């Protein structure tokens, strides 16, 4: 019978493999799905998904700040519930984002002047960091749920600010392009 010492590294290797695969597969799958030119007709309701995503990003931003507050107060249970809720909302966001882009053409930004480069800077940094943050968030969640709190804290030093930036810029980008959505 294998001892716990030999099982732990094997489980860790499997978890790392799954995290690494998901961290690559999710952005690649999203990019492939966004590249599909033939849109699927699931009904008019899908035109409301960007607004839902703006709300999801807003709530996620608040939850991330609440999670930070709770852990600073040493309220681990409230921190865990808040952060797992933020993680779940992030997953829901991803589903809604993909559904929207599978069913609707991308909305062009209509702003002009100085606002245009600001919008594109925020959009590009948001997209790039949303790809990067997947790996950090998955590791942070894994370490927390597996009781590896020192590794969780180390990962969160990077995961938290990137995730918060992605959530907040998601809201800002949504508010900037919102006037150009057509229903």
What's the short story on this structure?
The chain is mostly helical and 183 residues long. The chain has five helices and no strands.
Give the N-to-C terminal Cα separation. 63 Å
Strand content: under 5%
Shape estimate: globular
Briefly, what CATH class? Mainly Alpha
Query: What is the count of helical runs?
Result: 5
Number of domains: 1
SS class: mainly alpha
Helix content: over 70%
- Rg from Cα: 19 Å
CATH topology: Four Helix Bundle (Hemerythrin (Met), subunit A)
How many strand segments?
0
CATH architecture assignment name: Up-down Bundle
What's the story with the biggest beta sheet?
A: none
Instruction: Write the element-wise H/E pattern from the N-terminal end onward.
Output: HHHHH
Instruction: Give start-end ranges of low-pLDDT stretches.
Output: 1-7
* Mean pLDDT over the full residue set: 90
Task: Describe the secondary-structure layout.
Blueprint: H1 4-35, H2 49-72, H3 76-103, H4 115-145, H5 149-177
Helix pairs in contact: 1-4, 2-3, 2-5, 4-5
Give a written overview of the molecule.
The chain has 183 residues and is mostly helical. It has a single domain, classed as Four Helix Bundle (Hemerythrin (Met), subunit A) (Up-down Bundle), CATH 1.20.120. It is built from 5 helices and no strands. It has helices spanning 4-35, 49-72, 76-103, 115-145, 149-177. Helix 2 (49-72) runs antiparallel to helix 3 (76-103) and helix 4 packs antiparallel against helix 5. The chain is globular and about 50 Å long. The model is unreliable at 1-7 (pLDDT under 50).
């Amino acid at each position: 019978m294998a001892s716990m010492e030999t099982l732990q590294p094997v489980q860790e290797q499997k978890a790392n493999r799954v995290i690494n695969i998901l961290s690559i597969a999710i952005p690649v799958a999203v990019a492939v799905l966004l590249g599909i030119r033939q849109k699927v007709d699931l009904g008019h309701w899908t035109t409301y998904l960007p607004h839902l995503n703006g709300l999801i990003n807003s709530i996620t931003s608040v939850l991330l700040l609440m999670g930070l507050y709770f852990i600073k107060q040493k309220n681990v249970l409230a921190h865990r519930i808040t952060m797992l809720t933020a993680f779940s909302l992030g997953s829901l966001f991803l589903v809604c984002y993909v559904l929207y882009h599978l069913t609707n053409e991308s909305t062009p930004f209509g702003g002009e002047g100085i606002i245009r480069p600001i919008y594109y800077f925020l959009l590009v940094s948001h997209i790039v960091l949303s790809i990067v943050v997947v790996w950090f968030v998955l590791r942070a969640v894994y370490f927390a749920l597996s009781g590896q709190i020192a590794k969780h804290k180390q990962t969160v030093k990077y995961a938290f600010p990137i995730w918060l930036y992605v959530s907040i810029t998601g809201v800002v980008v949504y508010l900037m392009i919102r006037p150009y959505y057509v229903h």
